[in-house]
Amino acid sequence: MKAPRVTKVTTHVLQEMKLRGEKISMLTTYDFSMARIIDSADIDVILVGDSASNVMAGYKTTLPITLNEMIYHASSVMRAVKRALVVVDLPFGTYQGNSREALNSSIRIMKESNANAVKLEGGSEVIESIDRILSAGIPVMGHLGLTPQSINKFGTYVVRATQDEEADKLFEDAKKLADAGCFAIVLEKIPAALAAKVTETINIPTIGIGAGSKVDGQVLVIHDMLGINQEFSPRFLRRYHNLYEEMKGAVEAYIRDVKSCDFPNEREQY
Ligand code: KIV
Fold it and tell me: What pLDDT score was predicted for residue 1?
C-alpha cells in the first residue's frame, strides 16, 4: 500500500515504510545538479557515499577521500535537496577506534553540510562510536557485509558472509546495530537468504545492494545505474541508461559542429 506523498523524508518516515511494507528507494549523489534531478524524481534517500572517491575523484578505493571533501560534496547536495533524507558517509579513518573522533567528525558533517544523518561501516567494532554519535542526536545508518573501507583486509570485492562463521557474525552485528539505535542498515553483497533473515529479525529498515529482494529498500551508485561508469558490471547492477555513450555522442556532435563552423549559427549569436 502506498501512503500519501511526504514533503520531507525523515528517519521516522523510513520506519513507517518498513512497517507498512513500502520499499525504500536510495541512490548515491555527490553534486548539486545531479541531486536536484534525483530529488525532483522523489527518491526517498540520497547517500553522499564515499564512493565519491571512486566515481568523482578517480581513486581505486574509497580510502583516500577526506572529511573536508565529503563535507564539500554533502553541502553541494544539500543546497539542491528539498524532499529526500540525506545521509553522508563518514570517510575511512574518521571514526574507527576513537569514539570522540567519530563524534567530532559527525558533528562537522552535520554543522558544515546541514545533512540529515551519517553512515559508517562495521559491526561490534564500531558500537562505541555509534553510541557516542547517537548521544549527540545525530541519526546513524549502519553498513554490513562488503564494507569497501576494509578492502585491504578482505583482499577482494567478492560476496561476503557465504560461510557460517561470517554470516553468524553479520546477523549478530545487525542486531547490535539495531539495539544501539541505528535507524537503518545497508547490507552490501551478501546472500539474499541472509539479508532476508536479518530483515525479518530486526525492527529497523535494511537497504540492500547486491543483497536480493527481501530487504526493505535498495541502493545503487548513480554513476553505475545511469551507465556513466562502464568499467563496473557486477551481477547485482541493473543499468537504466547508457549515459557514457549518450554523453560521448553529444560531445562528438559538438566537436563536429565547431570544426565545421555550423555552431554557432545566426540565431545563436548577438
Ligand atoms: O559509498 C557508497 O556508495 C556506499 C553504497 C555502495 C552503499 O556505501
Answer: 56
Closest residue by CA, ligand 1 atom 8: 49
* Ligand 1 binding pocket, CB closer than 6 Å: 28, 47, 49-51, 89, 186, 188, 209, 219, 221
Q: Domain residue spans in the chain?
A: 11-239, 242-270
> What is the tens place of the pLDDT at every residue in 153-164?
999 999 999 999
Superfamily, domain 11-239: Phosphoenolpyruvate-binding domains (3.20.20.60)
At residue 53, φ and ψ (nearest 5 deg) are -60, -40
Burial of 183 (0-12, 13-18, 19+ CB in 10 A): buried
Tens digit of each residue's pLDDT (9 = 90 or more) over 206-248: 999 999 999 999 999 999 999 999 888 999 999 999 999 999 9
Q: How far is the CA of 265 from the centre of ligand 1 (A)?
A: 44
How far is ligand 1, taken at its centre, from the CA of residue 220, in Å?
7
Closest listed residue to residue 157, CA positions, set 223, 233, 95: 233
